[in-house]
Sequence to fold (526 residues):
Amino acid sequence: MKTLSFFLLVLVSGSLLFSSCKSTGTKTTESPAQYAEQYRPQVHFSPPTGWMNDPNGMVFFEGEYHLFYQYYPDSTVWGPMHWGHAISTDLMHWENLPIALYPDSLGLIFSGSAVVDANNTSGFGKEGKPAMVAIFTLHDMVGQKAGKKDIESQGIAYSTDKGRTWTKYENNPVLKSPGTPDFRDPKVSWNVETKKWIMTLAVGDHVSFYSSPNLKEWTLESEFGKGIGAHGGVWECPDLLQLPVNGKADQKKWVLIVNINPGGPNGGSATQYFVGEFDGHKFTNKSTEIQWADQGKDNYATVTFSNIPETDGRCISIGWMSNWQYANVVPTGVWRSAMTLPRELKLVSENNKYILTSEPVKELQVLRDRKTDLKSEVIKDKLELDRQLSNPVLPVEMDLKFSLPATEASSDFGIELYNSKGENLLIGYDKTKGEFYVNRTNAGNSNFSKDFSGIHISPFILNGSTVDMHLVIDDASVELFAMNGKIVMTEIFFPTEGFSGIRLFSKNGNVQLDSGVVYKLNSIWK
Ligand code: FRU
Fold:
């Protein structure tokens, strides 16, 4: 979609809209789903039934991680947006809760964030009993159909029962449209220096920062981004966070995440970021080139959790594991789309550059089952792993360390998943080309979209001779975290028969496997 507006118009003509705009207050995400269908993710969150896109309102509160998400319960294609809701105590196992927010007379409930109002600035809570406050975009579909431009405004809702029920603020919207159609996806955080809330908002080709003492009244502080960074599409779902550099708490930098659609490095949707300073009013960019948080085709709308306790101190993100190029037509059954694994974000400084790194959160370890250690050996062509692993081989986590002898100038090596139908998926590093890649040209079902099949790359010139690859492979997705999380690629796939074999391969030269650990992962749904 060139812009969301275009996409929404297509759907309007498909008469999907308004079928569920009435808020019944009783609909839940509970369903008889078994989470055992073909392509159903086993270690990733997906809705029991219906359509899902962006993660929303991620917040930690009283021992629970809340994941809200863009949800259309009545169909498996995008439609009138609600906020679906799930909670977890370990970021891995999720419990589905009733829908949190329904469309109302002001519009559909588009993406946004949630905070814990610890100082009761909003007055929605009580002394010692803070409210959770959700801040979201109200999208006026009726206005859009009528050709109006002032169709997006921001609203808030609060909960005083740990997110179980939500009350919309009677004076919504709290931030009216300035008349520009793309004005959405508020990410709100508390700024300790100014002692105000800061809202980072996507406004077409830039982000706008607003401040508020109470979450109800908002003042424009500044804008960032016109002509800076990637602009192949509309800016959406921004986030502003502060991270220590190389783990040093006294050397922090601000990271501005901006999701963009289309215009991603491999086509369609993707997550870019900028590193710089934020003085409570304005963001100053220090990045000198375009940087992507994940170069796979299936990571979008990445945002982070708020209210992670200081004793924990992590910055944890989740993205939507799809791409607007084909999200509505992927061949899943009663549901569409899954989230990425929760990831810990860090900032490293290297060669005068700040790089955002991602790794799965350490809680992934709770899913680890049978462990297989691979012995160090030279891979000449193929090294079959399925005989060493138990069947079914997926979902699986792999931690592989390779080294390339200087004499092997052209090695192209990695991991291959395959099935008895001759379909395969390759995840590798090509030394000659200087790039990591995921090749899904022969990975099964792809005729649902011309944009799906392909070899997708993440350029990376090796500095030394070693390559590390950490992978989490689910029934229909792979997440590659290479070079200590500096290279991230997320891709989905749909083999006509589940991948039942895994091998390591090396082409055009040998590669040395220095060490390898493989964990079979337990399903989060069983
Ligand atoms: C991003 C997005 C957001 C919007 C939501 C609508 O995927 O287009 O900008 O709020 O999806 O579902």
